[in-house]
């Protein structure tokens, strides 16, 4: 029997605005539900109840058919919420692979699923102190070890808002030195509707982070990025 997945939104084509494949033309499939409640989550509608009317329970084939109909890209990014809550997501990954689609996925590294090994570009985004969440280091160690052992393409991406977050980023980078490491400037105004006001703020936050990384002797082989989609489209959903 085909599993059904809680789909919050399917959108694109757009560009991947973050991390290891920034700039990649892609479709997004955003699942509902998260085991975290980050203080600054820009997708809180996936877990705080405000988006519940939009959730559709879809099979892998129904999702794949929608993506086929929209067309325009051979790359799909699965995000959430935390898609790692879904035990049978391999059904969707398999379906997309059968259609010749490259599959990327975003998760925070709190939960493991065996289907992680089928993802073409996996981003683990453990959460710094400003999120209010606590990292389960043994879980993250195990996930990184599995992915490394199976020679999977994956990266770590830490969002940074302040100096305590930066210190956390150092801890993550030093713990997993061999894993491609990205620092991402935090958006501290996720309700701002004026895109030019937001853009000024985001540029300021990005500059601050770049300066901090330049000055850091501990953050060596790292990449510093903004959320490019927020620069282009602000806090608009589905972009
Ligand atoms: C919305 S989350 C969904 C996937 C997964 N739950 C996770 O956190 O990795 C996607 C990415 O957006 C980042 N993010 C969420 N809110 C943000 C904000 N206010 N500023 C910058 N990045 C943010 C997360 O850290 C994560 O890397
Ligand atoms: N364009 C675009 N790039 C993204 N990269 C990660 C996103 C996410 O919310 O997971 C995201 C998103 O929502 N939009
Ligand atoms: S883990 Fe991701 S989706 Fe969940 S609350 Fe944090 S940023 Fe939002
Ligand atoms: Mg987002």
TrEMBL record:
Binding site for [4Fe-4S] cluster: 34, 38, 41
Positions bound to substrate: 15-17, 30, 79
Binding site for S-adenosyl-L-methionine: 40-42, 81, 125-127
Cofactor: S-adenosyl-L-methionine; [4Fe-4S] cluster; Mg(2+)
Reaction(s) this enzyme catalyzes, per UniProt: 6-carboxy-5,6,7,8-tetrahydropterin + H(+) = 7-carboxy-7-carbaguanine + NH4(+)
One Pfam family, short name: Radical_SAM
Alphabetical keyword list: 4Fe-4S, Iron, Iron-sulfur, Lyase, Magnesium, Metal-binding, Queuosine biosynthesis, S-adenosyl-L-methionine
GO terms, biological process: tRNA queuosine(34) biosynthetic process
HAMAP family linked: QueE (MF_00917)
Biological role stated in the UniProt entry: Catalyzes the complex heterocyclic radical-mediated conversion of 6-carboxy-5,6,7,8-tetrahydropterin (CPH4) to 7-carboxy-7-deazaguanine (CDG), a step common to the biosynthetic pathways of all 7-deazapurine-containing compounds.
UniProt protein name: 7-carboxy-7-deazaguanine synthase
Lineage: Bacteria, Bacillati, Bacillota, Bacilli, Bacillales
